[in-house]
Amino acid sequence: MADTKTLNNFADMNKEPIPMLFPYDPAQYWEQVRQIVREEVSILRSRNEAAANPYQTPGLTEKPLYTMDEVAAMFQISKPTIYDWARHGKLKPVKIRGRVYFLHGDIQELLQKTN
Question: Which of 3, 36, 46, 66 could lock onto 70 through a cystine, CB 3.0 to 4.6 A?
Answer without folding.
Answer: 66
